[in-house]
Design brief:
By secondary structure, this protein is of the alpha+beta class. The chain has 18 helices and twelve strands. The structure holds protoporphyrin IX containing FE (HEM). Belongs to the cytochrome P450 family.
Length: about 425
């Protein structure tokens, strides 16, 4: 582990490897100039570790949608950054296991179910906004952006109220590993969180077997057998929990930061809170919460003008693809009317639908939680514009240390 860290540092600082530099402090603070350096080198850039990286929108989209790439190699070769012994459920599986498990979770994210959760989202926002208004000065992440998705996903799963805090603690610990492990101590903490979550979920499964309720865990417990093996249940629930905790918080956080940094756009949203949905889409494009994913080639193939060999990884740098000038006119500009109804988006000659950002990935692993994330973030931004119009920063922003996940850790604000 430390050997790999040291070589990353060496590659990044001394040899100027862009993938390494992206993963160091420089990339964490602002990856966008590094993405432009990659773009200048062509659609596919080799890494020193023998894989490929790309910020080309067309290539990213093709790789993510291709059936000749997967998330695990044909011989079971896992992702190089995967943690040993952490089962990522269907996020880390190829078909047919991927299809079988995803099908079980998908109904929970249907439009009908989203309709059911809008009430909970609005009630939660109401409570959070009342609390911050009473205080005047608060942390936008801890007091607004983070609690909302946590409350919603624990409720969807059916975690009893008294257990929510403990699930949250272990979920956050597991989520901290999305970027890899940075020390032996961190590895121990993550593995302990995995074990604790499994034990807590086993207790919840037993409860819902005795007393089924109208929630996702009850549905999954009832499906145990042919459709889901008992040992697959806890990893699936942990995946949903962590995905629910660690992503939408950054979408709301990145949107708030972008608005505060672009007063003209903040004015636009305050004047017309109906732009909240378009503002969410532009934030997903301009500063997405997930910056990178990867696929392994099942066979030798030509893509982006190079030959990708069987078992080679291609890292699709979503944050860079979302600023591809061939797809998005004036890509570095944050413009919340870009996705407003009737707005003109960029057109790409190769047949890519105009202005489609890749924040939720593409193909069979396209984010299952996208409707939930969009619904929560849109309602949150509308509420902020309507009820906290005097919102402004009162202290320095601190960022998360992660590279894969991008978002603020603390944003001190006042109303
Ligand atoms: C997959 C992003 C919110 C659950 C993904 C992937 C991305 C992503 C990029 C695909 C990774 C890949 O292709 O390798 C996001 C973003 C979110 C968000 C930016 C918020 C703004 C959520 C929420 C949930 C969720 C709220 C659930 C509660 C999942 C699951 C997968 C996934 C289960 C795996 C899908 C599969 O492998 O078929 N997400 N996500 N996500 N997401 Fe999200």
């Amino acid at each position: 582990l430390y050997g790999e860290r040291a070589s990353t540092w060496w590659d990044g600082r001394v040899r100027g490897d862009l993938r390494a530099r992206l993963r160091l402090g420089e990339g964490r603070a602002d990856p966008y100039p590094l993405y432009e350096q990659l773009r200048a080198r062509g659609p596919m850039v080799a890494t020193r570790q023998g894989s490929w990286q790309t910020v080309d929108h067309h290539v990213c989209r093709e790789v993510l949608r291709s059936r000749t790439f997967g998330v695990v190699g044909v011989e079971g070769t896992p992702h190089p950054d995967d943690l040993p012994d952490v089962d990522l459920s269907f996020l880390g599986k190829n078909p047919p296991d991927h299809t079988r498990l995803r099908r079980l979770a998908a109904p929970a994210f249907s439009p009908r179910m989203m309709g059911r959760y809008t009430g909970l989202v609005d009630r939660t926002l109401d409570r959070l906004v009342e609390n911050v208004c009473a205080r005047g000065t608060f942390d936008l992440v801890d007091d607004l952006a983070a609690p909302l998705p946590i409350i919603v996903i624990t409720e969807m799963l059916g975690v009893p109220l008294e257990d929510q805090r403990t699930f949250q603690q272990h979920g956050v610990a597991l989520g901290s590993a999305l970027d890899g492990l940075h020390s032996l101590r961190h590895a121990r903490e993550v593995m302990a969180a995995v074990a604790m979550l499994e034990t807590m979920f086993e207790g919840l499964f037993a409860l819902r077997e005795r007393e089924p309720a109208d929630d996702l865990v009850s549905t999954l417990v009832a499906a145990r057998g042919d459709r889901i093996r008992p040992e697959e249940l806890a990893p699936l629930c942990s995946l949903l929990l962590v995905a629910g905790f660690e992503t939408t918080v950054n979408l709301i956080g990145n949107a708030a930061l972008a608005l505060l940094a672009h007063p003209d756009q903040w004015d636009l949203l305050r004047a017309d809170p109906d732009l909240a949905g378009a503002c969410v889409e532009e934030t997903l494009r301009w500063d997405p919460p997930v910056h990178e994913t990867g696929r392994i080639a099942f066979q030798d193939q030509q893509i982006g003008g190079v030959t990708v060999r069987k078992d080679q990884w291609v890292f699709t740098l979503i944050g860079g693809a979302n600023r591809d000038p061939d797809v998005f006119p004036d890509p570095a500009r944050y413009d919340i009317t870009r996705y407003a109804e009737g707005a003109q988006s960029g057109v790409r000659s190769a047949g890519t639908p105009a202005g489609e950002h890749l924040a939720f990935s593409g193909g069979i692993h396209y984010c299952i939680g996208a409707p939930l994330a969009r619904m929560e973030a849109t309602r949150a931004l509308r509420t902020i514009a309507e009820r906290l119009p005097t919102l402004h920063r009162v202290g320095p922003v601190t960022r998360r240390r992660s590279v894969t996940i991008r978002g603020p850790r603390h944003v001190p604000v006042a109303v």
